[in-house]
């Protein structure tokens, strides 16, 4: 079976649902959202705590309520949601291969929005030594599904690896699942969340934060029994008795469909390379949300979906797809910048760039250069891992369309220890 629509949105999380809602509001025609889960809403469905919706809905709500609201908004706008269905590949330009309860079919679309999000690397990809217990080792997504989806008790004593926003979110999920997080570890010298979040975790959950510390061993058989952590400065090891280990953060975008479509990936983000308008290197393929880079909050992803919808509308109305692009990269200790390509018609500089670094740097000054020519410099209060800094993108108007790649580099700053 084959079906035709104006726009296909792959992924029913905040970015995909926001894009679909905005597309319908702007008169895109027929919009179909394909989601592999049986319920729309994405990761927030499994986050029972408050804190969602501040930037896009201008109110705070729980994850499940936030997810349900976006799903309801998309449906009321007129978008069609196809749930429990996986996009497995491409049958040609703009033609998706779908597999679901009704079998296999093809979907032809004039434009496709990739909003597949990102995932945490599993233990195997992190190369953590030790035994392989059958139970007790999981990432944050699995923890959330067990606690808020299946309403299971996961254990009693937990260790969380990572110290980003989502890592602190895992503390609350563990508490709902009947477990106490006794320790949180990060190889970095500081946590990557807000100071108030860290203070609250210390008071509410009484969780030790072990910085500059690596997970060096996992021990257990049928069930996890303990983990060994090692201080990176002294080399001293400590064994912590626990029955739950949560591997948080360390994100990688769900970029497989972008690769199959022939879209270029950015070396830093490992997501599809896009310009300010969300256009990839493959004609008719747009990308939005956390498929572009490591995890940003859900409302950031939703706003990204809204923005890309306007670009899709322009494309459907006859906007010319750029034939070439100038890549935008960065040098160490900066890790990645997004958007990461500049195309014709994308040099107005009316947007902001997201920037991350491999270590925390305060009072930073970054420079933007092309072919050795200084285009612009900006001061950033803080840039580091786990949380993006925002840099004004007005410099894109100064890029020479006939020049070479653009590089963002650190000029000065204080490294926090």
Description:
The chain is α/β, with parallel strands linked by helices and 417 residues long. It contains eight helices and 25 strands. Strands 1, 2, 3, 4, 5, 6 and 17 form a seven-stranded mixed β-sheet that branches. The chain is globular.
CATH superfamily of the largest domain: FAD/NAD(P)-binding domain
The tally of beta strands, per DSSP, is 25
Tally of structural domains: 3
**Rg on CA atoms, Å:** 22 Å
Largest sheet: 7 strands, mixed
- Secondary-structure-derived class: alpha/beta
Mean pLDDT: 93
CATH architecture descriptor text of the largest domain: 3-Layer(bba) Sandwich
Contiguous uncertain segments of 5+ residues: none
CATH class category name of the largest domain: Alpha Beta
End-to-end Cα distance, whole Å, is 59 Å
Helix percent band: 10-25%
Strand content: 35-45%
Which fold name fills CATH's third level, the topology of the largest domain? FAD/NAD(P)-binding domain
Number of contiguous helices: 8
Instruction: Sum up the overall morphology in one term.
Output: globular
Short description:
This protein is of the alpha/beta class and 417 residues long. It is 21% helix and 35% strand. The protein contains 8 helices and 25 strands.
Task: Note the topology.
Elements: E1 2-10, H1 14-25, E2 31-34, H2 63-77, E3 80-82, E4 86-92, E5 95-100, E6 103-114, E7 118-120, H3 123-126, E8 137-139, H4 140-149, E9 157-161, H5 165-176, E10 180-185, H6 195-204, E11 208-210, E12 213-220, E13 224-231, E14 237-241, E15 244-247, E16 251-253, H7 256-260, E17 285-287, H8 298-316, E18 325-330, E19 334-338, E20 341-343, E21 352-357, E22 361-370, E23 373-383, E24 389-392, E25 406-415
């Amino acid at each position: 079976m084959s079906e035709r629509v104006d726009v296909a949105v792959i992924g029913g999380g905040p970015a995909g649902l926001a894009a679909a809602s905005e597309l319908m509001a702007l008169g895109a025609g027929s919009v179909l959202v394909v989601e592999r889960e049986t319920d729309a809403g994405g990761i927030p469905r499994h986050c029972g705590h408050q804190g969602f919706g501040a930037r896009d809905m201008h109110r705070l709500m729980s994850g499940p309520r936030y997810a349900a609201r976006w799903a309801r908004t998309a449906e009321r706008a007129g978008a069609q949601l196809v749930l429990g269905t996986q996009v497995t590949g491409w049958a040609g330009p703009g033609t998706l291969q779908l597999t679901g309860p009704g079998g296999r079919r093809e979907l032809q679309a004039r434009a496709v929005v990739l909003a597949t999000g990102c995932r945490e690397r599993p233990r195997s990809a992190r190369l953590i030594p030790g035994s392989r217990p059958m139970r007790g080792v999981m990432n944050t997504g699995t923890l959330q599904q067990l606690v808020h989806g299946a309403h299971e008790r996961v254990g009693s004593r937990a260790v969380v690896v990572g110290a980003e926003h989502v890592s602190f979110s895992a503390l609350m999920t563990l508490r709902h699942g009947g477990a106490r997080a006794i320790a949180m570890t990060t190889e970095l010298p500081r946590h990557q969340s807000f100071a108030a979040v860290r203070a609250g975790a210390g008071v509410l959950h009484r969780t030790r934060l072990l910085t500059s510390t690596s997970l060096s061993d996992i021990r257990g058989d049928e069930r996890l029994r303990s983990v060994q952590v090692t201080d990176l400065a002294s080399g001293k090891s400590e064994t912590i008795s626990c029955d739950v280990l949560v591997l948080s953060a360390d994100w990688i975008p769900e970029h497989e469909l972008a690769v199959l479509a022939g879209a270029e990936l950015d070396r830093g983000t490992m997501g599809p390379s896009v310009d300010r308008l969300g256009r990839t290197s493959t004609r008719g393929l747009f990308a939005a949300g956390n498929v572009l880079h490591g995890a940003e909050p859900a409302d950031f992803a939703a706003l990204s979906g809204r923005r890309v919808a306007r670009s899709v509308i322009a494309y459907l109305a006859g906007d010319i797809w750029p034939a070439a692009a100038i890549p935008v990269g960065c040098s160490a200790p900066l890790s990645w910048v997004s958007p990461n390509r500049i195309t014709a018609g994308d040099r107005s500089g009316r947007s902001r760039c997201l920037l991350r670094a491999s270590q925390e740097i305060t009072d930073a000054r970054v420079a933007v250069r092309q072919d050795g020519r200084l285009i612009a410099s900006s001061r950033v209060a803080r840039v580091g891992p786990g949380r993006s800094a925002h840099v004004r993108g007005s410099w894109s108007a100064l890029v020479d369309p006939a020049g070479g790649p653009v590089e963002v580099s650190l000029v000065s700053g204080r490294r926090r220890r």
